[in-house]
Design a protein that fits this description.
about 250 residues; mainly alpha; two-stranded antiparallel ribbon; 4 strands
């Protein structure tokens, strides 16, 4: 069995006999271990950076959205067939027809309520119910009035339930639907362009793809958006021609 001293003697002899080969071997081995050590340090730093980002941002937490439970089908149909609501709808529609008739005469236009759609319809069983697709918005207004005093949530009960799942804090968003037949459309150079919407060529010419949701808008509390918005909105101020935009994560 070769001794440790003999190994040293052989290595020294080889070093003297083949200096260049030994030097290259040592150099390549040093470079290999250097690359491995560098890769290890870079990987360790990368994981530390990701962990730090998760702690400071929102990625280490869950944001849970809570919505109120929609009414059952039976309750909904009971509501739209409420005789009291139907009677109010008829009265408001009669008043609207009178207003339209008066305005049409003032403008010298023809108007007939026959071409208008009332906010109620007859069902197959002969009863009358509110029309969901009421173009005049009477049905929508009546339903808003009926439920305006009914809170969507019991906030105290919701907070208590959320704490059972480790919730740190609860926030409230405000959502607004755009009025029927309206939309959030951009105005080029701050000017509204009028054109014939029944003319396909004019529609295609003046069409501008909206940069935002045109059917509604949501106001979110700053506590939930500050992690994805530049500080102080990157210096943005209301100027009448632009809006701050929050890009989804997939755009990065």
């Amino acid at each position: 069995m070769i001794k440790l001293a003999d190994v040293g003697v052989l290595a020294f002899t080889k070093l003297r006999a083949r200096k260049l080969r030994t030097f290259l071997t040592v150099l390549l081995a040093s470079m290999l271990f250097g690359v491995l050590i560098a890769a290890s340090l870079v990987t360790h730093g990368l994981f530390q950076s990701i962990d730090s980002f998760r702690k400071e941002g929102l990625t280490s937490r869950y944001i849970v959205s809570v919505l109120n439970t929609p009414p059952s089908a039976d309750e909904f149909y009971k509501t739209i067939r409420d005789p009291g609501l139907v009677a109010k709808a008829k009265k408001r529609y009669e008043s609207l027809v009178t207003q339209k008739t008066t305005e049409a005469k003032r403008l010298g236009l023809e108007y007939s309520h026959v071409n208008d759609q009332p906010p109620y319809t007859q069902t197959s069983d002969g009863s009358t119910q509110l029309s969901i697709n009421d173009p005049n918005g009477i049905t929508l207004q009546l339903l808003k009035e009926k439920y305006s005093s009914t809170p969507a949530f019991d906030e105290a009960k919701l907070s208590q339930l959320a704490k059972q799942y480790g919730a740190i804090k609860t926030f409230t968003e405000e959502s607004y639907a755009i009025k029927k037949r309206s939309s959030l459309s951009p105005l080029i150079d701050g000017k509204e362009v009028f054109y014939d919407s029944s003319n396909e060529a004019e529609v295609n010419t003046h069409y501008v793809k909206p940069p935002i949701n045109t059917s509604g808008i949501t106001l979110a509390p700053p506590e939930t958006t500050k992690g994805i918005v530049l500080p102080d909105n990157a210096g943005w101020r209301p100027d009448g021609s632009s809006l701050p935009v929050i890009l989804p994560q997939k755009c990065y």
